[in-house]
Structure formats: C-alpha cells, structure tokens
Amino acid sequence: MPTVELKNSTALATIGDGFEGYSDRVEGDDSPQQQGLIRGSLVKFGNSAEWETRDGEVVDHNVKLIVTDIIRAVVKWGADKKPEQTTVIPPGQPFPDVEAMNAAIPKDQWRQGPAGPQGPFQTQQLVVMLNPRNMEHFTFATSAIGGFIAVRDLVDKVKAMRRYRGPVSPIITLGDAPMRTRFGERRRPHFNIVDWVHMAGGDEPPQAALPSPNSSAGPVIEVTAGDRVAPLTKAEEMNDSIPF
C-alpha cells in the first residue's frame, strides 16, 4: 500500500502573523483534564452501525481521515454523568486496575449503567483524526469492548507498518465489522486503512506559497503523491527478512 507525503502549501510567514507559538494555556495549569482530550468534533458509533457526530449527523464513510493520536485515560464519572477527573495513561504503561479502584468506592457513590450499577472509574480510549482537506479534527472516545477491539486492531497494524517504513500514520475511513456477543452477532466500529502518510515535521523545508485569492488552485492542505514508500513485500509480511 503506497505511502504519501502530507503537503502543506501555506508556508505562512512566522513574523507578525500570530500563528507560530500561539497558546491559550494559563501558567501553572498543565493538567490533562483541564486542557481537554476531545479535539474538534466528537464522533460515536451508533446502534445503527453508523458513525455520527454529537448532533446526530452521519459521517460519510468515504471521508479520508489521518489518525494523529491515540490517547488512553481513566475517567472518574460524577453522579451527574459528567467527568470529575481524567487521568491520561502515558504511552507504554498499562491501565491501572480499575476494578480494584471501583471496589474501594462505597456502592452509594456508584452510578447507574446500562447493565446495572457500575463504579465511577472507567477506562477510555480516544482516537484523534484529522481531515487534511479542511483541517477539521474528530475524536472517537470509547469504553466499549467493540471500540477497544477496533483501537487495538488499528494500533497493531500501525506498529507492523512502522517496523518497516518508519514513523508513518494511517489514512483511514470509518467503517464497521462483525463482533460476536452473547446476544448474537453485532456490529462494532472499524478503522479501514486505505493509505499511509508521513506527517511533515517542524524541520521540513517550506513548501510553495499560498495561492492568491483569485487562484484556481486546489485546496491549501491536501494529500498528494509525494515521496512514495514501496508496499510491504511478501518476505517482509512473513518476517523472512530483516529491515535495515
């Protein structure tokens, strides 16, 4: 599967434009829960096996998004069904024992869940995605088994590709897959990887200047065919050779 380069044709000047170094953070306020984990629009996988925004708008299955981050957290929910505390789990570290954490909380402080009372602590995974056409962000947050399976499957595939092609990021479309449950087969969320991209870093050389307002050029930000990386060979897929 080819890898493409994310081209940024804005090349905004850094003098006097207010973009570089912009921050709205307050000094001393570095807690993840204060900064917020949701980037852009929150999306969910509904009971109808459709991806929807918080307002119920269905997300087009053909929209290509770049996965820019995977976040793991433990959320403590309040009685009003709002998060009281959010703790981000650093990369490489396991989730804490949430069952033990909930067992230490008096049952009168538990909340009512779909299957009965449940403790206030809950593990959560978030997938942050970017639409390179308009730079709109989407975040999928899940605590469900099906969602965890989808995230793990995505992570496994990305790790496998990075083994041979370096720090690439997946370009995905939002889909679904079957999942067996005690109530029969259900649909779960699934991230369809359609391509791979090298995200340009801060050390990348400037690209072409921003087109004039009257220009008929395409979108300012677009994924175009750039430095392509060869797809994995059969030997690589079977781990018959050592990548250098």
Structure write-up:
The structure is a single chain. With 244 residues, the chain is mainly beta. The chain has a domain at 40-205. The chain contains four helices and twelve strands; from the N terminus they run βαββββαββββαβββα. The chain has helices at 32-35, 98-103, 145-165, 234-237, and strands at residues 3-8, 41-45, 51-53, 65-77, 83-88, 111-113, 116-118, 121-131, 136-142, 169-181, 184-198, 221-229. Strands 1, 2, 3, 4, 5, 8, 9, 10, 11 and 12 form a ten-stranded mixed sheet that branches. The chain has a two-stranded antiparallel ribbon with strand order 6-7. A hairpin with a 5-residue loop joins β4 and β5 (83-88). It is globular and about 55 Å long. It starts with a strand and ends in a 7-residue tail after the last helix. Residues 8-14, 31-35, 202-228 and 240-244 have low confidence and may be disordered.
Terminal Cα span: 19 Å
The helix/strand series, from N terminus to C terminus, equals EHEEEEHEEEEHEEEH
Biggest sheet features:
10 strands, mixed
Low-confidence stretches: 8-14, 31-35, 202-228, 240-244
Structural category is: mainly beta
| Number of continuous helical runs | 4
**Can you tell me the overall shape?**
globular
Estimated helix fraction: 10-25%
SSE layout:
Elements lengths: L2 E6 L23 H4 L5 E5 L5 E3 L11 E13 L5 E6 L9 H6 L7 E3 L2 E3 L2 E11 L4 E7 L2 H21 L3 E13 L2 E15 L22 E9 L4 H4 L7
Parallel strand pairs: 1-11, 2-9
Antiparallel strand pairs: 1-12, 2-3, 4-5, 4-8, 4-10, 6-7, 8-9, 10-11
Keywords:
244 residues; 14% helix; disordered C terminus; two-stranded antiparallel ribbon; globular; ten-stranded mixed sheet; mainly beta
